[in-house]
Amino acid sequence: MRRRFSWGAGLWLFIGAAYFLIPLVATLLFSLKSNETGQCCSLSSYGEILHDPAFWKTLRLSLILAVETIVIALVLLIPTVYCVHLKLPRLRPVIGFLALIPFVVPPIILVVGLLDVFKGSPSWFYAEPYGFLVGAYVILAFPYIYFALDAGFRAIDVHTLTEASQNLGANWRTTLFSVILPNIRAAALAGAFLTLAIVMGEFTIASLATFDTFPIYLQYINQNKAYPAAAVTLIAFAITWGAMLSLLLVGRDRAVQLGGAK
Which residues share a beta bridge with 258? Predict the structure, then answer.
């Protein structure tokens, strides 16, 4: 039986697509204007950005910070959420409340507090972005990764999988890495790419801590160059959405396995 097409749903879909695409198209057309004449169409703005060493330096720094933040947050939270769901379910509301704190505390207050707390720490941590910024970004990513993992663990039967794995002779490490992780891979990827988007767009903490990250570079270009600013904005947008697309591709064929049997 063929479904009837709903014109109302189609209208709202068109409005939503227009709301999303019109600003992107306008930004694209603006970025294609020549720096000398102001006429369309030219790729000079993209060439200027891609040949700027500061672009690649700050982009590389932000990507490394994102990877470090993702790894540390997942290493800390996956065993924690697993233990809470398995043995300490009464702590779920408490951890959920703690995960909401980064939403409530403004980043400007967070960075001022962290600068004061960590001022006595070693210089390799306090004065380097790979230490201080990663610590701050793990706090910012806490709610996104926690709620993603919590949803992933609630979607599986943790007790049954753990008991079956232990009955087959597996220790806790084998159970976690070979049984639990394959079943929450999509949830972990969702939290990871949300964290990537956060790190690639976070400005306040990096600015007040005086580290030159990719968002700082974006702000500098936006303040000083019109057409290249539109170009670098689209490049940043493409990087973020490329990460989201990879999430869809990797998470589509999620495997649910136990002891190697499908």
Answer: 261
